[in-house]
């Protein structure tokens, strides 16, 4: 009898109990009921625990199954408690000792809880009892350390493995992507294929995330072909990853093609496409696609609503955004999160509705974070409302609210610098030093001939650095002859104008575009991915290059895509 519901499971359990003592005390007769209760999405974990407690004798399968269920459930701490009951029990006839499967499931619980201390203790126990060479345990350790932001520890285990499998490779690749090391993740994927391992759908999804993060379109297209050869594109998770990769690499039409070819679209697939269209400034298409999703009776989740609100934000649709925001809980059953409130605040602030933005923040039912107040503070500066800025600075004491929030320090220091209050900026810098906080460095990536090159501001470590800087000087001279003038106000340092112009010239995306002009053939697009929001000067610089050099330049910044062509940007200078 196959069990499909807890009602059926309980009926079968009742039959076992009626059959007599022999059936009740034989663990095998209960395994079907127990497994369904513990692992099925229609099961009942509490019922499984009651079954385990009722057994006079048991084996490790029952404990391991329950630990596994808790590790994947909402309360993984229960998995650690069960492990301790096994480990500390002195009577193996009642409670079995942990085996190698116990450790794999327990490590998954530690990974989900981000309990690095406990996980390391389990690692020590694994060494002590001689399980350290078991492949399943090694894979679990790689996953654990990667989940706890210790990818180097994970890589040490991976390097020492004698018998790797696709899970080993996928875990380490995924860990490097999560740690912001996508270029290394791509290198590992290539090594995996060269070593003769066949990637599965999870591997492909991980490496496509790496391509998306770096803008590595050529590599992403190669992975797409490999996925087609291995018949992996029929899997919805792979199709969704392809849509995300193409969208984030600036190929939104290719993303749309994959989306249209996907047969069984789930909410993640629809969300990836809506989000992609929104980030490319194609907000009307994004909203229309969301309406189609509703017609297919698919329930949007938190990320879908974020994508819809982002589409409204990118073109300044205040009324439409509020319509979606106010109906999201009632119509879609999605409770607004801080990200949704942030979209509305950013939209109002950028549109210059500062009173509305401030009132919205103050009447939120959840505690606003420093990011929301930063949006309003920056908008106050942009729109010239210095009185609001000064008042909010006094009221909020933002640096105390976000004592470890580097963004607050950077924003406030920049605003002080923009109005010439250098002593105030110096005090902010001193606070940053006291709290050992470092300003994130701007970086830009460009892919050329299947290799990703990364540049940071003033970067001189590239093998072709001399050639790049010569090209940049050439570009700067030619653009100035055609009317480009650096926006010196963007340099928030107490230095002379000549030094400010020098600082602006060496921004990371300018180094990347110079390299692109050197390496890319005439007429081909130049695609750049940067980690921060574009500054006004770089935006003007890219518009000028697109006209003078007759190139389309596609830049993805932290917020959205910018398509520069014939001296204009598709964002219409609204970003």
Structure description:
This protein is mainly alpha-helical and 575 residues long. The protein is built from 31 helices and six strands. The chain has a six-stranded mixed sheet, with helices on both faces. Strand 1 and strand 2 form a beta hairpin. The protein is globular and about 95 Å long. 42% of the residues are buried.
Q: Would you summarize the structure shown here?
A:
The chain has 575 residues and is mostly helical. It contains 31 helices and six strands. It is globular and about 95 Å long.
In quaternary terms, these chains amount to single chain
Q: What is the SS-derived class?
A: mainly alpha
How far apart lie the N and C ends?
A: 61 Å
What is the count of helical runs? Answer: 31
* Rg computed from alpha carbons, rounded to a whole number of angstroms: 28 Å
Mean pLDDT: 89
For the secondary structure, the number of strands is 6
What share of the residues lie within helices? 55-70%
Major sheet summary line: 6 strands, mixed
Anisotropy-based shape = globular
Strand content: under 5%
Short key terms for the protein model shown above:
575 residues, globular, 6 strands, six-stranded mixed beta sheet
């Amino acid at each position: 009898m196959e069990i499909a519901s807890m009602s059926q499971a309980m009926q079968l359990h009742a039959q076992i109990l009626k059959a007599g003592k022999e059936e009740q005390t034989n663990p095998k007769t209960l395994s079907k009921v127990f497994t369904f209760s513990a692992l099925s999405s229609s099961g009942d974990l509490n019922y499984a625990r009651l079954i385990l407690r009722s057994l006079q004798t048991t084996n490790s399968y029952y404990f391991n199954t329950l630990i596994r269920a808790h590790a994947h459930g909402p309360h993984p701490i229960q998995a650690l408690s069960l492990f301790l009951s096994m480990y500390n029990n002195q009577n193996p006839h009642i409670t079995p000792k942990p085996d190698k499967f116990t450790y794999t499931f327990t490590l998954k619980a530690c990974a989900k809880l981000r309990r690095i201390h406990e996980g390391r203790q389990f690692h020590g126990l694994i060494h002590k009892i001689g399980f350290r060479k078991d492949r399943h345990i090694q894979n679990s350790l790689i996953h654990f350390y990667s989940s706890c932001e210790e990818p180097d520890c994970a890589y040490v285990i991976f390097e020492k493995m004698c018998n790797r499998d696709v899970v080993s490779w996928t875990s380490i690749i995924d860990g490097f992507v999560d740690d912001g090391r996508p270029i290394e993740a791509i290198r590992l994927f290539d090594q995996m294929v060269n070593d003769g391992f066949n990637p599965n759908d999870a591997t492909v999804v991980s490496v496509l995330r790496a391509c998306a993060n770096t803008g590595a379109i050529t590599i992403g297209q190669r992975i797409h072909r490999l996925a087609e050869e291995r018949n992996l594109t029929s899997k919805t998770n792979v199709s969704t990853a392809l849509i995300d990769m193409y969208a984030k690499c600036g190929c939104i039409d290719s993303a749309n093609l994959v989306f249209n070819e996907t047969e069984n679209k789930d909410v993640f697939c629809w969300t990836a496409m809506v989000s992609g269209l929104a980030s490319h400034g194609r907000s009307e298409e994004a909203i229309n696609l969301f309406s189609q999703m509703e017609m297919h009776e698919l329930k949007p989740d938190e990320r879908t609503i974020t994508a819809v609100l982002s589409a409204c934000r990118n073109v300044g649709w205040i009324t439409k955004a509020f319509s979606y925001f106010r109906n999201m809980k009632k119509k879609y059953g999605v409770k607004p999160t801080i990200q949704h409130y942030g979209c509305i605040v950013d939209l109002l602030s950028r549109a210059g509705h500062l009173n509305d933005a401030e009132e919205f923040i103050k009447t939120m039912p959840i505690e606003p974070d420093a990011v929301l107040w930063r949006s309003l503070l920056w908008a106050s500066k942009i729109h010239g409302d210095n009185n609001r800025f000064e008042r909010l600075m006094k009221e909020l004491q933002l640096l105390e609210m976000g004592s470890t929030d580097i963004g607050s320090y950077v924003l406030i220091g920049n605003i002080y610098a923009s109005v010439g209050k250098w002593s105030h900026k110096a005090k902010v810098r001193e606070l940053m030093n006291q709290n050992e906080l470092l300003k994130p460095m701007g970086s830009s990536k460009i892919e050329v001939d299947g290799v990703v090159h990364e540049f940071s501001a003033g970067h001189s470590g590239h093998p072709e650095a001399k050639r790049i800087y010569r090209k940049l000087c050439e570009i700067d001279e030619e653009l100035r002859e055609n009317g480009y003038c650096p926006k010196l106000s963007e340099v928030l340092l107490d230095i002379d104008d000549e030094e400010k112009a020098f600082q602006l010239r060496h921004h990371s995306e300018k180094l990347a575009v110079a390299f692109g002009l050197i390496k890319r053939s005439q007429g081909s697009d130049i695609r750049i991915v940067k980690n921060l929001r574009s500054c006004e000067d770089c935006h003007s610089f890219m518009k000028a290059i697109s006209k003078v050099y007759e190139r389309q330049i596609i830049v993805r910044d932290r917020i959205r895509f910018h398509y520069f062509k014939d001296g204009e940007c598709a964002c219409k200078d609204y970003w």
